[in-house]
Design a protein that fits this description.
It is built from four helices and five strands, in the order E-H-E-H-E-H-E-H-E. It is an alpha/beta fold. The protein starts with a strand and ends with a strand.
Length: 123
């Protein structure tokens, strides 16, 4: 089955982002395909490199998963701009963990049209 995933929750404010991460790992392990993980609203904060010592760094786990599986982690450019993660011209300000890239809603819509299932994880 082909899933596309949208994550709307910050990793520090809700369990939804971690639940999405665990779901994606399990789905991939069971042979499902996930062509796109789209981070929207506060979900874009999952891409921010954590600087809190002793705190679970979900962005590092996302980066590792992307590196190991080729998972496409896309941030909504508008949401990332509003939260100061990318500049107004859409360029990375050095705050994004490896494996994340900036994209737009068009990519999300295209992926949804080609998916068997669309899942949203939100607070």
């Amino acid at each position: 089955m082909k899933f596309v995933i949208q994550i709307n929750a910050s990793p520090r404010e809700a369990q939804a982002a971690n639940t999405a991460y665990q779901f994606i790992k399990a789905a991939l392990a069971n042979g499902h395909r996930i062509p796109l993980v789209f981070f929207y609203y506060d979900g874009v904060c999952n891409a921010q490199v954590s600087s809190f010592a002793g705190e679970d760094d979900l962005s590092a786990r996302w980066s590792a998963l992307a590196r190991e599986t080729g998972l496409d982690l896309v941030l909504c450019v508008s949401a990332a701009q509003r939260r100061g993660l990318v500049s107004t011209d859409g360029k990375d300000e050095g705050l994004l963990a490896p494996g994340f890239r900036v994209g737009g809603l068009g990519q999300w819509v295209d992926a949804c049209l080609k998916a068997d299932r669309v899942l949203t994880f939100a607070a």
